[in-house]
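Before relying on records like the one below, remember that each one covers exactly one chain. Contacts with other chains, cofactors or solvent are not represented anywhere in the record.
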Amino acid sequence: MYDFLKPLEGLFEEKIPLLKTARTLQVLVIRQTHDYTIFRTEETRELNVVTLPRSANNPEAVLKVVMLASKQKAPENRMYARLFKTYATALGVTLEPSVLNCRLKDNLCRMCPRCVLFGAVTTEARQEERWNIKHRIEYSSAYSIEPYEEISELITFNAVDTATQSTGQALGVTENIRPIAHFPSVITLKSVTPEEFIFYLKTLMATKSYGAETRIKGDVVNTIVGVAGGFEEIITSLEYSLELAGKDWSSDPVTATEQILKKYGSFASMPDQVKILSKKELEELVKAVREFKITKEFIERLKKQAADFAEQAKKAASPERKKGR
């Protein structure tokens, strides 16, 4: 066990289990836009919005912007794989060709750290190869603290004629989220090893591009403001967002988050198993993870954990095993 993870002792797995256990960790993050950002899924080019109470204590209905779970998972999913391969190459860790060529979504190797944490579905036609890996990391939609009207803006774009350097008629309009909008988010990790937890936190800190049109916009900074664990999920992203919206949280989001977690921890079905990091413990954890040096041994442990799990899963799914041979 790493010393800086001692406050969460008992919530990690020594190795990745074939079947998920109840050990659950939740990372609470405030995602803050640092550029104009687009969160949309519809062809109408409109932002995803939903009607919600203004806050947990104010039932007034207001429109809020939604950062869908898929828009959070995708960039972090890709970054997790990218960081692992980059570190492995730089540190001289040998990776199998299938791992090196693993990519979303139709060429997943089902044996690398990304596949065994984020999940993997095979596209192989052969029956004996058709086994999948269930995800152990879960996202849910994040809802803006600020109302839609306060953070949305229409931006017109047009094209420049390269010969005359003049602009013609406007090509269209995009609806954007303004900088310094806040999206509280809860990411849930289940049955993870200490190494997986550390590497995910580093991935979360490193991921900066979210939403559509990230080639020209979409900068987002993730600030980890809370960590809780137990044998169940303690809080949802919606609860967290509505609670923050009713507080003066901006000057000290970590303390505000700790108070919210203590409230929801008391609602748990097994409160004696709940662990909530204090402000000091959280700050020490984040500092330690940020300063943690990724070594060859660390990457090899991640690689071995994933490979061992994949071997277990393959054996469990084999035709001989199913026939009881």
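The first strand starts at residue 24 and ends at 33.
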